[in-house]
Amino acid sequence: MTASAPESGSRGLFVTFEGGDGVGKTTQATLLQEWLTTAGRTVVRTREPGGTEVGVLVRDIVLHHRGEIAPRAEALLYAADRAHHIETFVRPALERGDVVIQDRYLDSSVAYQGAGRVLGSDEVRDLSLWATGGLLPDVTVLLDLDPSVARERLDADDKPFDRLESEKTAFHERVRAEFLALAAAEPDRFLVLDASRPAAELAEAVRERVTAALHPAA
Ligand code: TYD
Which end of the chain is more exposed for a tag (fewer CB within 10 A), N or C? Predict the structure, then answer.
């Protein structure tokens, strides 16, 4: 079934894409952005870490610093990026009525720092909620994929691995399990998709969900 095109409205919508490294978030975010733009919506595309000038500096530290970063410091760096990004960029866009499509948000911190670094999911979630004044997405698309398959995709890209991508398989398995647990706990917010499916099918499922969020039943 083909989802009908959304209409322009005055209410903003916050859509996030989540999942492990190499699952295809950027591809799906781009397809959604193109579809909504063609349909006449004003779309703002952004990401964490690195959605602002300050965020670009933070991104460089968390992804490329050579040497140790204490896990709590890492969690605080992602939270600092997020606090600045949400206040200065995302909230103003939502207040204008734009659709914000974002690669990664607080669920990434809960999965990577809370479960991957074993800092504790509740603490890390609370940190991000404090940082953002409690802003949750309207829709979160979780692209789920076995980390070993995702790793093969990253290998094929031929780019050097960053600090997080270089972590062991067990780390990425904890991250995956936490994302799935988060989705199970908030089924109204999450759309979980098997990321091994063809990109066009995934895009169609995302469109249907976003259309429903733009036009909630009265
Ligand atoms: P991403 O931009 O998806 O990487 P790439 O540009 O290589 O596709 O994310 C960067 C890394 O940061 C990724 O490994 C996940 C990690 N990350 C966290 O650990 N915590 C967070 O809160 C966020 C937003 C990302």
Answer: C
Residue 8: is its pLDDT beyond 70? Answer: no
Q: Is the pLDDT of residue 4 over 60?
A: no
Is the C-beta atom of 165 inside 6 A of ligand 1? Answer: yes
Q: Is the Cβ atom of 49 under 6 angstroms away from ligand 1?
A: yes
Tell me which of 17, 18, 21 to substitute to probe ligand 1's pocket, judged by most ligand atoms within 8 Å of the beta carbon.
21
Three-state SS string across the chain, please?
CCCCCCCCCCCCEEEEEEECCCCCHHHHHHHHHHHHHHCCCCEEEEECCCCCHHHHHHHHHHHHCCCCCCHHHHHHHHHHHHHHHHHHHHHHHHHHCCEEEEECCHHHHHHHHHHHCCCCHHHHHHHHHHHHCCCCCCEEEEEECCHHHHHHHHHHHCCCCCCCCCCCHHHHHHHHHHHHHHHHHCCCCEEEEECCCCHHHHHHHHHHHHHHHHCCCC
Hey, what CATH class is 13-214 in?
A: alpha beta
Ligand 1 contacts CB of residue 17 (under 6 A): no
pTM: 0.94
